[in-house]
Amino acid sequence: MALDLSRFAKAFFEEAHEHMSALETLLVAIDLRAPDNEDLNAIFRAVHSVKGGAAAFGHKALSEFTHDFESILDRVRKGQLALTKPRVNTFLKAGDIMRHHLLALEQESPPDKAAMDASRQALLALSVETLDEPLTEQDASATVPRYQVEVHLERSQYGADTVLNALKEDIAGLGEVRNIRTEAIDERLIAFFFDLDTDIDADELRESLEFLVPAEAINILANERRGSPPQSATPLTALVDDSDGEFGFFEPPEPAARQAVPRAAVITDSDVQLSSLVDASSIRVNVVKVDQLINLVGELVIAEAMLSLSTQGMDPNQETRLAAGLAQLARNTRDLQDAVLAIRMLPISFVFSRLPRLTRDLSERLGKEVDLELFGEDTELDKSVIEKIADPLTHLVRNAIDHGIETPDVRAALGKPPNGLLTVRASHQGGSIVIRVTDDGAGLNRERILAKAQELGLDGGETWEDEEVWQLIFTPGFSTAAAVTDVSGRGVGMDVVWQNVHTLGGKIDIDSSPGAGTSMTIRLPLTLAILDGMSISVSGETYILPLASIAQSLQPERSDIKSVNGNEVVLVRGEYIPITSLATLFNLPASSDTDQAILVILEIDEKRAALRVDELLGQQQVVLKSLEANYRKVSGVSGATILGDGRVALILDAGFLVSIAHSVAPTTRVAHAA
Amino acid sequence: MSVTYSQRNTVTTEPVHEYLSFGLGAEQYAIDILKVQELRGYDAVTRIANAPEFIKGVVNLRGVIVPIVDLRIKFSLADPVYNEFTVVIVLNIGKRVIGAVVDSVSDVVRLAESDIHPPPEFGSFDTKYLVGLATVGEGMLILLDIEKMLSSAEMALVEQTAT
């Protein structure tokens, strides 16, 4: 039994988390004055589904909690309890508690019982509030439809007894169970019957049972003599099964067994099945499998490159078919690579979805009114980028609400509408993704930033351009917030945002005007799996430099190279830039002819360094590979890739090279953020 | 443990393990064959900057970047010659894949626990990576604990702080 259930436990947690996300999204979006009935039902169902699963897996505390929760939600959807902001807050809180509880269960750590009890009390308090709205007799009977359930179990598949026991436990948690009996249908199948008195509707009952048995094996008969049939079920007249009585892949049961469930009232699953098949347009795949696929395609690309390399010398007129075949192969390989990389792309709504809740909680706490508008939620970017951009983006939104948007009275005094407008927009621009967070708040305060910079002993003066001043806020420890709140003002955050964005190879631009608002623009590469690189050659070794970090390359005149305290610098456009020799840094044999050397000017965060290389081999897109998977981190190297000839080439860490150059040689222009 | 050399082919119930034997200079070594993923030639190795001398670099093994260690240099046993006969034993060490360069791969030998003698104490030689010695025919095999050795700090193959 433990073995069977553990297989489902993972599915339960995954589904439960999805339900909780749905719950939160729906609750945040709900219109308090005119809540949509469908939404209320969906909210109820989300909690209810978790309850069913929790009961099936024996998570008693959770199933009891969800039971109370759903009782309240049930009243809400029946219109017996009006939705108010504090009530929605209580529900959101309860949702959080469930989420934490689920996480704790999943990680097998002790859940926070006190918090759960507190939230449960709050929920129960809501139900006390409504005692003066008594249920009518009719309501009461309508909430308790009676079901006759027939479940078919396959004997051979996995011990029918095990499933049967789990089922019994499961249904016991759903309501009052009577008349449990089993009958053998044939050698293969056992029919399991029970009557159930419960206040959940047929769909939900089915959902809870589907944790244990396939959908096709469940028949639920809603008994008409107890009030109206469950609202979500199809009218019974429509359910007359006029086919030959088969449902799913099961053979028709013996007539004796069949009699227990009157044919006209059997809700077969065929309709439901069909619709869920149509909905199943996406599948859940482990990322490891996708990465494997990407690896294999990468190999294919290399093999294809080798093949075309070795056939380069042939006469295309003589080998027409071979040449055509190779061209076809090349095209298909590229298409395949694009298609495979697209699998890892996810819509940015994965990150955006948490913003409405954040905005709601935060604006409430700060006494501000904020309208959040999201655009471009379908913009796709690589999964690894999505994971790393979530925190910076949350931070920018938090900052905009805390520092940017003013309180309603201040806004009114300024002649602005009382509700602040916060816009988050994602879009593709060329090979990068652009995420822009715009508020119509106070804007950045130039004087205050400069004053703070002085206080911290940073460079910065009246002559600076606005853009340069704005960049100061990314300095660690920098905060101009008047008071430290639990939201922001501690000066940690913006530097972390900057860090995260830069490790992703992106950058942030700030545009702000006093009184009109601030706009922060994050630019990111679409994927971390592919890099635009420049292959260079040093002492016979091939390396890749990220193209984004290269400002220019040049072959310097001997007179342009000067020496400062033994370190070489080169004069480029009136600026002395320290020269780093990769050969020295990596202990490679020095190349003989330094006159022919080419300098590649790298630029990272306004800092420049010149890298001496022997040759520029060309520009190419490379697939990033981890060096650390089987080896270790190598300083100066950010990863590896495989070249067209099958050899490994190391990808240089431009940031490291620039900082090395600056640590050995004094810079001519001190960077302000250092 | 009392060690006696038992004839190979004698019927015993004790478990028999398979070892891959290989040559480093004049000496014959053997490692647990379950750690071996495959054998391949020595080819197209990309140097890694500032790595110890015995780490030759990395190669592309079907899309995976695999570091290559030359055991001959590590043990200072033979002049490292790289030609078409140089063999790389690709090993699975924990979750990592590591290639080890040896002079030649000899054989797969089956050894029972009782075939393995504990290594004698050497004054200067470090025996902590040795499982023991085994006599096979005329020769002697030195059994290495390759996993322990390659994941040790001195090999500098694995980030020590990471684990």
What does this structure look like?
The complex is a heterodimer of chains A (674) and B (163). With 674 residues, chain A is α+β, with helices and mostly antiparallel strands. In chain A, the strands form 5 sheets. Chain A has a 6-stranded mixed sheet. In chain A, strand 2 (176-184) and strand 3 (189-197) form a beta hairpin. Residues 131-144, 225-279, 482-491 and 665-674 of chain A have low confidence and may be disordered. Chain B has 163 residues and is mainly β. Chain B has one domain (16-155): CheA-289, Domain 4 (OB fold (Dihydrolipoamide Acetyltransferase, E2P)), CATH 2.40.50.180. Chain B contains 2 helices and 11 strands. Chain B has helices at residues 71-74, 146-150, and strands spanning 16-24, 27-32, 36-41, 55-61, 64-70, 87-93, 96-102, 104-112, 116-117, 130-136, 139-144. A 6-stranded mixed sheet of chain B has the order 8-1-2-11-10-9, with no helix packed on it. Chain B is globular, with a radius of gyration of 16 Å. The A-B interface holds A 295-296, 298-299, 302, 541, 585-588, 625-637, 640, 642, 645-650 and B 44, 46-51, 57-60, 62-67, 96-98, 156-159, 162.
The largest sheet of chain A has its strands arranged as: 14-18-19-17-16-15
The count of DSSP E runs of length 2 or more, i.e. the number of strands of chain A, is 22
Q: State the major sheet of chain B.
A: 6 strands, mixed
Overall pLDDT score of chain B: 81
Q: What CATH first level of chain B would be assigned?
A: Mainly Beta
Beta-strand percentage of chain B? 35-45%
Q: Give the strand content of chain A.
A: 15-25%
Instruction: Give the overall form of chain A.
Output: flat
The largest inter-chain interface, given as chain pair and residues per side, is: A-B, 31 and 25 residues
Instruction: Detail the poorly predicted runs of chain B.
Output: 1-7
Identify the notable features of this structure and list them briefly.
heterodimer, A: 674 residues, alpha+beta, Four Helix Bundle (Hemerythrin (Met), subunit A), Alpha-Beta Plaits, Helix Hairpins, six-stranded mixed β-sheet, five-stranded mixed β-sheet, 21 helices, 22 strands, 42% helix, 22% strand, B: 163 residues, mainly beta, OB fold (Dihydrolipoamide Acetyltransferase, E2P), 2 helices, 45% strand, globular, disordered N terminus
